[in-house]
Design a protein that fits this description.
This protein has 29 helices and 25 strands. The chain is α/β, with parallel strands linked by helices. The chain has five domains: 81 residues, Orthogonal Bundle (Multidrug-efflux Transporter Regulator, Chain: A, Domain 2); 126 residues; 253 residues, Vaccinia Virus protein VP39 (Rossmann fold, 3-Layer(aba) Sandwich), CATH 3.40.50; 108 residues, Orthogonal Bundle (Helix Hairpins); 142 residues, DNA methylase specificity domains (Adenine-n6-DNA-methyltransferase TaqI, Chain A, domain 2). The strands form seven sheets. It has a nine-stranded mixed sheet with strand order 5-4-3-6-7-9-8-10-13, with helices on both faces. A four-stranded antiparallel sheet has the order 15-24-21-22. It has a four-stranded mixed sheet with strand order 16-20-17-23. β21 and β22 form a beta hairpin. The N terminus is likely disordered.
Length: 810
């Protein structure tokens, strides 16, 4: 699939000048004219989206004196298009995507083994001072180039065979980053890989060559394994974590069925118009990828699909583009300006789509506010401060006639008592926009245990007289504390949705009005409810409210207990391994005691670090938002030597955050309290990288020339000692809250050992941190097991009581 004609391709100012047949100075003048498109934000080079500047040039005719053989009336846009058609050979060679795999395709065991090898010792040997996330970016870049079957991969392989030493490794990394970034640019995405890959410091050229070799042997399914590693390591917050692939498949499949049910044309692969897809909160592109793969599995030409997405994650956006391109699509994925999609200029609200799929951010606070006044809300204005049903209405507004939507919603959105939300649910049901709702298990998503439901919606032109509810809360298995849906679970949900089940007013053999799917091993209770009955239950879209709650089943309690015991056993084994590693570290501690005193140095903090205070609050507060954006780090985020996420809304919009780039944190930075209760500083790891400093903190960043003199992990631990913290407290002024100045902090004395000794200290501390975390998880597992034991015993007692009462009545 050629992407040379991708409408979202990015061009430099020089390229625009060449296409339009003018000088760069002319482009500079044009940029001052009204309406000239703004460059895509971020990066060192200003780039402009092709569709944007062509539309502007279409309105600008070429003066007759400047015609270059063009007919009268030619616009600069027409000239640029002719240049594109004529001079494609001058543009960078585009990649050609591989044949897309089926949606059920899984990485084979060989791929899993190789990815495990890549993420093992090779990871640490190649990343050096870089983070594990930087290393995963290298893997996805290599895999993207390899699976795209372009000459670019041949160039990478050839370069890996000829280089040597640290200079050769750096050159190869630059080559991979530049090649991957160029292909991202052709796909309309801001170059993003160079910044990550240049931070890697391979110990040897052979290690880097081995990485290239192993990635070259991976199959197409390995990309998703790499996405799993990225999500695990990147510490994505609730607004960024990925949608589990099994959930994405369920959403894409049922939404596609709903399109077919409501479409008289009954679209087939041979139709001239392929389906169009939109995700207003695309995260890592997993929902768009699932729908694309579903169409490809039926033999559809994915490169002809219209795939649109709006993402709020600048770091995950390139992964979404790569994932979709490898499936044969030519996606248009834009990074949001920070506004919600119904107010974002990039969201193209005038377009309509066959499928709209999304996993928007949840507003978990109670919806007690008044209804908002602004916006287009055909089903009723949502309450202020809660966007759950605002996203739902935006998705309905972007459906074409006959279209279908699927959205992940927190359970409380289905039965909240807020008057505005109740009115919206009523309007949606009465106008036939709600097709079905499926309750899913909790713990499906990374870093949150919030239980969710899937809502399936349709365009009102195909109004539904009834709503189908499914209770799939019991499906899935627990893997390392997280609920995972397997193939049988997915099939059970799909079978239950397609099966003929009784209406709420009917009775099945048990007289419950509840049906189940065709899979006899996994039961998914299902009921179909007329609109009027939904109204009788306060217009609830919670499946649990419609599938009557029965006495807890004994086997359900036993299953919960069995799962809790499995998790407990796993946590006990983790704790034993952590204890053994900590015991082994004691030998390293003894080595410190025997270390000679030579090589130690006495320095000041300012000798080693660039010390930067946070931005002025008076400037910062003008750009703070309660919507999505770049998080701010406050003193209360500094916990136990790390950056910890807090449940608050203190962010700077993505658009405004670029004005604060010099206050942005990166892995290896150390964050100290500037104003407030003086405590231990925090080392920025994966969580916190890319966030912005608040006014109340100070950043320490080791100067590049001192990376071999002081290790950031050692320095953070040194500054976290009680003696170091007391030194800061003694010098903090206290006119109101205690405050330390940059100059005073820079005078803090340091006594540091040789670098090799620092590495040993950091290794021991990491081992002890891992031991503490393992025992914390073990304590949580013990508490969960206790609850499961109580639940199992109570269900047993309740069952026995019921039997006794039944015997008495008989």
């Amino acid at each position: 699939m050629s992407i040379a004609d991708h409408s979202d391709q990015l061009h430099s100012q020089a390229e625009i000048a060449s296409l339009a047949g003018v000088s760069r100075a002319t482009i500079t003048q044009w940029r001052r004219a009204p309406g000239f498109p703004s460059p895509v934000r971020g990066g060192e080079t200003e780039l402009f989206r092709r569709s944007d500047f062509l539309a502007w040039l279409d309105r600008r005719p070429v003066p007759r004196r400047l015609l270059q053989g063009d007919p009268d009336g030619t616009t600069y846009g027409a000239r640029a298009r002719m240049s594109l058609d004529r001079d494609r050979a001058k543009l960078p060679a585009p990649l050609t995507a591989h044949q897309p795999e089926a949606p059920d395709a899984q990485a084979d065991q060989r791929d899993a083994d190789r990815v495990r090898e890549l993420m093992g010792q090779l990871c640490d040997r190649v990343r050096g001072a870089g983070s594990r996330v930087d290393y995963v970016n290298l893997l996805v870049s290599l895999h993207f180039l390899r699976r795209s079957n372009g000459s670019s991969w041949d160039g990478v392989v050839e370069k890996s065979r000829t280089g040597e030493g640290s200079d050769g490794a750096a050159a190869l990394l630059r080559h991979v980053a530049t090649t991957a970034d160029e292909q991202l640019r052709l796909l309309g995405m801001r170059p993003a890989m160079r910044q990550a890959l240049v931070r890697l410091e391979p110990r040897s050229y052979g290690d880097l060559r081995q990485v290239v070799h192993l990635v070259g042997e991976l199959g197409p399914g390995a990309f998703e394994l790499m996405l799993d590693e990225y999500e695990l390591l990147a510490g994505l917050d609730s607004g960024e974590f990925f949608t589990p692939r099994a959930v994405a498949r369920v959403m894409a499949r049922i939404a596609e069925w709903n399109v077919a049910d409501g479409n008289e044309l009954q679209r087939t692969v041979g139709d001239e118009v392929p389906p169009s897809i939109y995700d207003p909160y695309a995260r890592g592109g997993e929902l768009l990828a699932a729908a694309t793969a579903q169409y490809a599995a039926r033999g559809g030409a994915t490169h002809r699909m219209r795939v649109r997405g709006l993402t709020h994650g600048r770091d995950t956006a390139p992964l979404a583009i790569m994932n979709l391109a490898l499936r044969g699509a030519r996606p248009v994925v834009r990074v949001s300006t920070g506004a919600p999609p119904w107010a974002d200029s990039l969201a193209s609200p005038t377009e309509s789509f066959d499928l709209v799929l999304s996993n928007p951010p949840f507003n978990m606070s109670d919806s007690t506010g008044e209804a908002r006044g602004e916006g287009d809300w055909p089903y009723g204005p949502p309450p202020l401060g809660n966007d759950n049903l605002a996203y739902v209405q935006h998705m309905l507004n972007t459906l074409r006639e006959g279209g279908s939507a699927a959205v992940i919603m927190p359970n409380k959105a289905g039965n909240s008592a807020n008057a505005s939300e109740t009115r919206i649910r009523r309007q949606m049901v009465e106008r036939g926009a709600v097709k079905a709702a499926v309750a899913l298990p909790d713990r499906l998503f990374s870093h949150t245990s919030v239980p969710v439901s899937l809502w399936f919606l349709v365009h009102p032109s195909q109004a539904c007289d009834e709503v189908k509810f499914l209770d799939a809360r019991q499906v899935g298995t627990t893997v390392r504390g997280k609920r995972v849906l397997g193939e049988k679970d997915v099939r059970a949900i799909l079978d239950a949705y397609r099966s003929r089940v009784p209406r709420d007013s009917d009775e099945d053999e048990q007289g419950t009005g509840v049906g189940a799917g065709t899979d006899t091993e996994i039961v998914v209770p299902t009921v179909t409810v007329p609109r009027a009955v939904v109204g009788e239950r306060n217009w609830s879209l919670s499946p649990v409210d419609h599938i009557e709650a029965h006495t807890p089943r004994r086997n359900t309690a036993e299953g919960t207990l069995a799962e809790a015991l499995d998790v407990l056993a796993m946590r006990q084994e983790e704790a034993r391994e952590a204890d053994a590693a900590a015991a082994a570290a004691s030998a390293v501690e003894n080595r410190f005691a025997r270390a000679v005193a030579g090589g130690w140095q006495s320095l000041r903090l300012s000798d080693l670090c660039r010390i930067q205070a946070g931005p002025s609050f008076s400037v910062l507060k003008r750009h703070m938002t309660g919507h999505d954006g770049v998080p701010l780090v406050y003193p209360q985020n500094l916990r136990e030597g790390r950056i910890r996420e807090l449940a608050d809304d203190r962010k700077v919009s993505w658009e405004q955050a670029r004005h604060f780039d010099r206050f942005r944190l990166q892995a290896g930075d150390i964050v100290c309290v500037r104003t407030g209760a003086m405590g231990a500083p925090a080392l920025v790891r994966e969580v916190g990288a890319g966030w912005l400093m608040s006014s109340n903190v100070i950043r320490l960043r080791v100067e590049d020339e001192h990376h071999g003199l002081i290790h950031p992990g050692y320095l953070a631990a040194y500054l976290g000692r009680p003696e170091s913290v007391a030194w800061v407290r003694d010098r903090a002024t206290a006119t109101g809250a205690p405050s330390i100045s940059v100059a005073a902090l820079g005078n803090q004395p340091l006594v540091i050992p040789p670098y090799e000794e620092q590495l040993h200290v950091v290794s021991v501390l990491d081992t002890l941190d891992a031991q503490a975390a393992a025992h914390s998880r073990l304590a949580e597992a013990v508490a969960a097991t206790r609850d499961a034991v109580v639940g199992r015993q109570m269900v047993s007692d309740l069952t026995e009581t019921s039997r006794t009462e039944a015997g008495a009545h008989s």
